[in-house]
Amino acid sequence: PGAAADLHVLDLSLAAAGRGEIRLAEHEMPALMRLREDHRAARPLRGARITGVLHMTVQTAVLIETLVELGAQVRWAGSNVLSTQDAAAAAVAVGPAGSAGEPRGVPVFAWKDQSPQEFWHCVERALTWPDGQGPNLLLDDACTATELVHRGAACERSARVPSPDGAADELEEAMLGLVARTLADLPGKWTTLAAGLVGVTEETTTGTQRLRRLDESGALLFPAISVNDSVTKSKFDNIYGCRHSLIDGINRATDVLIGGKTAVVCGYGDVGKGCAQALRGQGARVVVTEIDPICALQAAMDGFQVATLEEMLPVADIVVTATGVEGVVTAAQMARMKHQAIVGSMGHAEGEIEVAGLSAVPGVRRIAVKPQVDEWVFPGGHSVIVLSEGRLLNLGNATGHPSFVMSSSFANQVLAQLELYTSADPYTVGVHVLPKYLDESVARLHLAALGVRLTTLTEAQARSLGVPVDGPYKPAGYRY
Ligand code: NAI
């Protein structure tokens, strides 16, 4: 469709294919389907205008259609230039009752492989209803929409046009370009938008870290719920999701045999733990790098060698970053790796792998082997294979996490949206976490599908533990 229609996806005729995948995913997302059943009649999100900025995948399609069934109006953009699944985007735009000729679904602005400018243009369109209104709720990933609104509002307050020169990378440069344009064309746009927001629910570690920094500096403009900090999100999606989708990404990209190879995982947080387990499961010799003594000791106790990347450069066959921090693998380090070493990121930071620095290496050549697989050949003739240009490889080279684990993450998203929108006690400006009973409820909704049978506390046991028979069972700070 042309950009004039109130949606922008690659090709609406992909909708039927996308719908088939969505139908299969629904069965694997029991918590979302249960939330639909429980709330379909009451439509508690009636009146909610939700802008979602999160990877436009099949699983996200089930999330979007759940929000719609609960009564919300929704507009959507992806949160990464490579992560959109075009068939899923088309199916959501067409909607269950529409057709390619007459789309009747949710306005989606996303396609796979966008330029930085296209990416921010899509986020802006998802933030703007045709009647000019903004959203009253954000559903965000990596603080993408939240950061745009905050940057825009800050520039409006200080009446300062941002300079792209100070940008850390192309993506930030494009965002500053968008802000500069709106300052001239639509004065007050971001301040008004921020004022209309009940709050944001944030999906991932990197986004929650950014929200906390905004809050600590006193700059946060609206309440936030960190979905990532639900146990049923970070201890499931980040660990078991990555355990599945890392291997999927490496296989689809290169199909190298992983068994017997030396694989380095940089970072042993939740994502790194899942990655290390997965590579070990394939028979790789896994070495971990860490900066935090606690995580380093955990890795050692789990039986992994812990070393520095520098030490491993001559022997590593596969290097995966899982830190959310930029500059973890530099261009100079890649130049010293083994011939055809595979380098990819599972973390969300732009520049976690310094791909931009590769093109500055004198005499280097880039060979595009296939989409999202580049061989960088150094002057001596040896090369490294870089996946997804150093961005999230499980979403760029494969299709992200499987549905069952995303059911857990996205049930937290729906509950967090409901909390912000319907809570009798409005949330204060700050970064909040869902109450423990809701976290436990998300886990409960997945037990039957796996044939799990829970033991019930007796009254006497509950008294001695000091917890109700029906939970919540653990104090807020319990680490699982
Ligand atoms: P985390 O904070 O639990 O773990 C990150 C770890 O990296 C920490 O233990 C930290 O000490 C370590 N680290 C930091 N700098 C390092 C360096 N220079 N070298 C070695 N280790 C270093 O965070 P989590 O939840 O594991 O997330 C990591 C990243 O992955 C985030 O950017 C997050 O947004 C992203 N993420 C990606 C997913 C995907 O599907 N690919 C899913 C969930 C999260």
UniProtKB/TrEMBL annotation:
<dbReference type="Pfam" id="PF05221">
    <property type="entry name" value="AdoHcyase"/>
</dbReference>
<comment type="function">
    <text>May play a key role in the regulation of the intracellular concentration of adenosylhomocysteine.</text>
</comment>
<feature type="binding site">
    <location>
        <begin position="204"/>
        <end position="206"/>
    </location>
    <ligand>
        <name>NAD(+)</name>
    </ligand>
</feature>
<dbReference type="InterPro" id="IPR042172">
    <property type="entry name" value="Adenosylhomocyst_ase-like_sf"/>
</dbReference>
<protein>
    <recommendedName>
        <fullName>Adenosylhomocysteinase</fullName>
        <ecNumber>3.13.2.1</ecNumber>
    </recommendedName>
</protein>
<dbReference type="InterPro" id="IPR015878">
    <property type="entry name" value="Ado_hCys_hydrolase_NAD-bd"/>
</dbReference>
<comment type="pathway">
    <text>Amino-acid biosynthesis; L-homocysteine biosynthesis; L-homocysteine from S-adenosyl-L-homocysteine: step 1/1.</text>
</comment>
<feature type="binding site">
    <location>
        <position position="394"/>
    </location>
    <ligand>
        <name>NAD(+)</name>
    </ligand>
</feature>
<feature type="binding site">
    <location>
        <begin position="267"/>
        <end position="272"/>
    </location>
    <ligand>
        <name>NAD(+)</name>
    </ligand>
</feature>
<feature type="binding site">
    <location>
        <position position="290"/>
    </location>
    <ligand>
        <name>NAD(+)</name>
    </ligand>
</feature>
<keyword id="KW-0520">NAD</keyword>
<keyword id="KW-0378">Hydrolase</keyword>
<feature type="binding site">
    <location>
        <position position="203"/>
    </location>
    <ligand>
        <name>substrate</name>
    </ligand>
</feature>
<dbReference type="Pfam" id="PF00670">
    <property type="entry name" value="AdoHcyase_NAD"/>
</dbReference>
<dbReference type="InterPro" id="IPR000043">
    <property type="entry name" value="Adenosylhomocysteinase-like"/>
</dbReference>
<feature type="binding site">
    <location>
        <position position="233"/>
    </location>
    <ligand>
        <name>substrate</name>
    </ligand>
</feature>
<keyword id="KW-0963">Cytoplasm</keyword>
<comment type="similarity">
    <text>Belongs to the adenosylhomocysteinase family.</text>
</comment>
<dbReference type="InterPro" id="IPR020082">
    <property type="entry name" value="S-Ado-L-homoCys_hydrolase_CS"/>
</dbReference>
<keyword id="KW-0554">One-carbon metabolism</keyword>
<feature type="binding site">
    <location>
        <position position="237"/>
    </location>
    <ligand>
        <name>substrate</name>
    </ligand>
</feature>
<feature type="binding site">
    <location>
        <position position="238"/>
    </location>
    <ligand>
        <name>NAD(+)</name>
    </ligand>
</feature>
<feature type="binding site">
    <location>
        <position position="57"/>
    </location>
    <ligand>
        <name>substrate</name>
    </ligand>
</feature>
<dbReference type="InterPro" id="IPR036291">
    <property type="entry name" value="NAD(P)-bd_dom_sf"/>
</dbReference>
<feature type="binding site">
    <location>
        <position position="141"/>
    </location>
    <ligand>
        <name>substrate</name>
    </ligand>
</feature>
<feature type="domain" description="S-adenosyl-L-homocysteine hydrolase NAD binding">
    <location>
        <begin position="238"/>
        <end position="400"/>
    </location>
</feature>
